[in-house]
Amino acid sequence: MAFLDESYEVEGDRTFYVLATAVVSRDRLVETREALTAHYDGEPMHAAPMFHSREVVTLRGGIALAARENDGLDLVVSAPIAPGDSLGHAARRRCIEHIAPLLHAEDGVGLFVFDQHREAEYNRRDRFTFGDLRRAGRLPRDVTEHHARPSAEPLLGLPDLLAWAYRQRLMGRDRSWFTPFENAARVHELG
């Protein structure tokens, strides 16, 4: 199973869309879910609010936990946001079109769980992207996507932490946030 979350920058000189994917094998789902839940007192982990509320020690611990749970299959994909794509929809689609067939072919991922967006239109676009990938023969019909809230699926904390840490690197901020992932996660930057 793959869990996905994003980070993006739509303003300024350097715009980008990052989609991070944490792959968790079926035999590690329960154990990893319990570790994440225990780390943050049963609450879902969201890196940006943790950072802004100065929970830096807890955030670093969460990132260390996410890096330890990494099996080398996690993937971060970034794409530039083109002029006219003010919300990053096209860049997100490019990231999904790269990630889904790759993770299915190389790692056998059959279920992609996305952090559910508040606006249904965003989730609908993801479903259309997967439908287009299946129709084009790039994914088999049994590969599916699902949207869930982090409160219902704590494992969505893994890609949230990964995407946020990679964002810090892209923005030229404190690069040490991504250091625990450097030897564990694959990074693909789309041109």
Topology of this protein?
Blueprint: E1 2-9, E2 16-23, H1 29-39, H2 47-52, H3 56-68, E3 75-79, H4 89-107, E4 111-115, H5 120-135, E5 144-148, H6 157-170, E6 186-189
Report on this model:
The chain is of the alpha/beta class and 191 residues long. Helices cover 41% and strands 18% of the residues. The protein has six helices and six strands; from the N terminus they run ββαααβαβαβαβ. It has helices spanning 29-39, 47-52, 56-68, 89-107, 120-135, 157-170, and strands at 2-9, 16-23, 75-79, 111-115, 144-148, 186-189. It has a six-stranded mixed sheet, sandwiched between helices. The longest helix has 19 residues, at 89-107. The model has no long low-confidence stretch (mean pLDDT 93).
